[in-house]
## 1
Amino acid sequence: MAFSPFKFLQEVRSETAKVTWPTRRETMITTIMVFIMVAVSSIFFFVADQIIRVLITYLLGIQA
């Protein structure tokens, strides 16, 4: 089977043309949503970690 770099580049170009690229606005909204979800997740895991720490400290009778 012969490999043709020219044919490969043509196929890559035709496939790239089929891609629906997001607009600048869509990209910004998605980025902001990711940052919001990271912040919410961070707060949730911090609170959960503190509750677990208090419960384990209480169960083991450790005085901090």
## 2
Amino acid sequence: MYVCSCFGITETQVREHAAAGACTPRQIASASKAGTDCGSCVRRIQSLLGRGGCPRRELLSETLAAASETAVQDLPEAARAA
């Protein structure tokens, strides 16, 4: 089914872009132009993206957690105890 009739973007294409890391309508627009002409498809794109986890956000969270853990381990013992 078409989501964006201005550029011929389908639900499948939006889901593929989302799986590749496009987590917002703006990122979908950057990847496919969907939502950049008349804008009537933006709400549909939002609903397809849903409130599910974003692979890119989840990866970022894991990376930041690992980095902060490493930073704490690199501190001298006295600083860690404080």
## 3
Amino acid sequence: MDILKTVIDYLLSLGAAIFVPIIIIIAGIAVKMKIKDAISAGITLGVAFTGMTMLISFMTGAITPAAEAMLKATGISLPIVDGGWTTMSTISWSWPYAFLMFPLMIGINVLMLVINRTNTFNADIWNVWGKIFTAVAVVGITGNIFLAFAVAAVQIVFELMSADAHQHRIEKLSGIPGVTCTHKMVFLAAIFYPIDKMLRKIPALDRKFDAETLKSKIGVFAENHVLGFLLGIVFGVLARYSVAETLTLAIQAATSLTLFPVITKYFMQALSPISEAVSDFMNKKFEGRTLLVGLDWPFMGGSNEIWLAIIFTVPVTLLFSMFLPGNEILPFAGIINISIAVPAYLVTSGNLLRMIILCIIGSPIFLWVGTAFAPFMTQLANQTGAVELAAGQMISNSSIDAPVFTYAFSHVFKFLEGNFIPAIIMVIWVTSFVFYYRDLMKEAKADKGESEINGTEEIA
């Protein structure tokens, strides 16, 4: 057992930019890719992950001080420190049973593939910490390790179901075939789904309005570099920066928005040959069945809509943090909230107007859940020494992935104490997920039938 823990800890310590490409190379060779092509694809994927991580860090490093300056100008003081996802990951991995989540995740995935309950091979094994985080929350509430792993197993199943359902829409939006997203952040799309259905009934919102549409309406001002520059100017003014600091922030924002689509091309370059090889292999082994590769969200990072929604959400989140009843977390490390923009992007199919509305509606949820998770995340941090905290200091994250799911499924056992709110929220999430899943599958089936008809007509 200790040997298994040591091996797993070492592999995962390599990070996503090394670990995921290794998995992809092994998978490529397993489906009969040429070794040189598999290695080339894996290295390119590592380059893409590293490039996206560098850009996000660069952007976060530019925006976070501005956000901090905005809040400092208001004199607002909130007691819970925002440690961001990296701190939450560190605390989660300090749980003594964390390494057992790795074989559980692989085992469930293999079983569901064998019995044909999923078509997704989850290569995003590095993000196993997301399951550990949920399990840690369950232990914090119940003290029961078996319940913790049971809830984590449920999460793994839902991740695979969500990946299957989203694949078609992701392919339409990203242009990358055979790849889907297995990150639990997309679970929030199930909560956004009924809201988006209502928004679609408003004629002005039920039309195409993506970054290209914006560009056609306002011309050069919607070009990535110009738009990024203008947004940087706005942030600099709100943060009361000097002229030099404001211009520097503007150029940094322009750089980020300009380079995100460039990095995404490397994801396409890496994943396209892998996807084709996996599809060919599956067609030979299992007639009529397509195997999908599940990955973390960054391969969708070239979508300008995601970054525009993220940047817009920064001042919205700061405003909510000041006045939202029940909030005690100061949003800094998680202020670049990818976990709200990606599900909004998927559920709206990239409609920027509806994405922004959903992000406004969703922002308070992240703050409330971040506040709710602070007590036991702080307790675990103090017990394990994973993070050094001052006496009385509390820590959490203002952008916890899939906040509704994570809160409801970890706190559901509160009903034993007479608190039925998490159980009600869980029922709402599951119900919404079922209807959303059904609509996504219908959309994929309808589009497939239409393409087959069009293909027949072309042949004729």
## 4
Amino acid sequence: MSGLHERHLAVSPEWLTLYYRDPLELTHGEGRHVWDADGNRYLDFFGGILTTMTAHALPEVTKAVSEQAGRLLHSSTLYLNRPMVELAERVAALSGIPDARVFFTTSGTEANDTALLLATAHRGSNQILAMRNSYHGRSFSAVSVTGNRSWSTTSLSPLQTLYVHGGVRSRGPYAELSDERFIEACAADLEDLLGHTRGAAALIAEPVQGVGGFTAPPDGLYAAFREVLDRHGILWISDEVQTGWGRTGDHFWGWQAHARNGPPDILTFAKGIGNGMSIGGVVARADVMNCLDANSISTFGGSPVTMAAGLANLSYLLEHDLQGNARRVGGLLIERLRAVGAGSPAVREVRGRGLMIGIELVKPGTDDADPEAAAAVLEAARAGGLLIGKGGGHNTSVLRIAPPLSLTVAEAEEGAEILGEALGAAT
């Protein structure tokens, strides 16, 4: 055990998770690579949990941060803030939400917490619909709408949460249905559920479930849900903390795969927009955002430094068509990983879109999750020079792959080869 690990254990909560038997201290990064304290170099396929979206040490972002820090580090929302207004204008325009208003936070958890506050205030109800296998953050309210028991730390809640079918396509009672019938069954189940409730405030849903193992419904499910929700006056919150900014390749936002009945009422974002800086936020229609009848501010949300980083990062993303790169290179990567998975009896499914890919592991010859194998592959990949993540619900065990969106074809090929070797060695 390293000295730093010992010091960490002495001052940190026991529930603060660390990857690897010998935890890793990262010291610096560049592009799609990072280095540890022993000088080892790794290809990064997890990007600080999908947060280093563009590249490590991206010069455009570091320059913007340095220049803004040299002028003004902090002011709070009590003062006009030019970088915050400029980024809000761009996010509002990109969101697809008409007459949009934007509120910045410091994390995805805080963004979802704010969205729940807005929805419950607007509707005068503390009842929330959430998806099974979901994850929305670690605050008291966000945990209470998380449908994944591995991350739901308490049953105490300020909200009454009801869980809906549909977030997981290949498991559960509707798994054997066609996509069309799957959507019909889930929408009918939602309608039936609402017949037993009193005026829910909102449905909160990740278009692709992140911590849940990169699971997703067929395209169009949330459009079908929207028809049901609209009949009951219920808001739709799209949690885009992991799916936003073009990561799925096909769309800029995850909700756009379900766009037949328009955009969500509320959209939350975080992670990638700051490329490592602490930015989260909420976009909502003006009538929803303005429904609060009490004063509020944010001390650190919309910080001049983080906003400068977000503006520079978003500009780079759009100017270099990183969404298109995620579609092209991600398509190649998932093909390679499916070929690798076809040769391993431990791989149940390789799924995803763009640069958001999950490899679900099971005990060979069964449909049972194999978390020990997932941990072993994580270790073997690290030994081979590759960093990946893991996740999944109560009955799944998934390797999570989400590199920076500037990933090259050569790096995709290299990562797939290392993963293939790690699966062979560990399963």
